[in-house]
Amino acid sequence: MSTNRTWTVYLAGEIHTDWRQEIEDGCAEADLPVEFSGPVTIHANSDDCGVAILGDEEKPFWKDHKGAGVNAIRTRTLISEADLVVVKFGEKYRQWNAAFDAGFATALGTPLVILHPPEHTHALKEVDGAAQAVAEQPSQVVDILRYVITGQLP
């Protein structure tokens, strides 16, 4: 019961582990018709894009403001075009941008899958409450995509 379409999945959130690659590899192995998009995951490029393109700033606030604006062009466009958004909250850093991406997807009515370790359940209860599914492992995201696209269980 596969659909005759290619799904666009935006992978938002933490950039310090290989979770995106795990999902992409799992979907490729399952031969799922999925195209992936996401933010710039080279941390330095994401942090410095505004000043690298638009000029230096003396104050960190304005440096970050320029970078956030430039990054938002990509993020908002790709989330708006996505069929599904997956947001990963990692263990190492507080990902305010991930929470923002989850809220933006929710505001657009785009289906949302949240991915985080069980110890973040309480802290992310509102974000989890907005999601259609909450997973703990990238393989579960692949299983969700397999089911949604083909109707097949793992």
Helix share, percent: 40-55%
Rg from Cα = 16 Å
Strand content: 5-15%
Write the CATH architecture name of one domain.
3-Layer(aba) Sandwich
In DSSP terms, counting alpha (H) and pi (I) runs of 4 or more, how many helices? 6
What are the secondary-structure elements, in order, as H or E? EHEHHEHEHEH
Distance between the termini: 15 Å
- Count of β-strands: 5
Task: Fill in the CATH topology of one domain.
Answer: Rossmann fold
Highest-level CATH class of one domain = Alpha Beta
Q: What name goes with the CATH superfamily of one domain?
A: Response regulator
Identify low-pLDDT runs.
none
Major beta-sheet overview: 5 strands, parallel
Mean pLDDT: 95
Lateral strand order in the biggest sheet: 2-1-3-4-5
> In one word, what is the shape?
globular
Name a few traits of the molecule.
154 residues; alpha/beta; Rossmann fold; five-stranded parallel sheet; 5 strands; 15% strand; globular
Give a quick precis of the structure.
This protein is α/β, with parallel strands linked by helices.
Structure overview:
The longest helix has 22 residues, at 60-81. The chain has helices spanning 19-29, 43-54, 60-81, 96-108, 125-130, 138-150; strands at 7-13, 34-37, 84-88, 112-115, 133-135. It has a domain at 7-37 and 82-150: 3-Layer(aba) Sandwich (Rossmann fold), CATH 3.40.50.2300. With 154 residues, the protein is of the alpha/beta class.
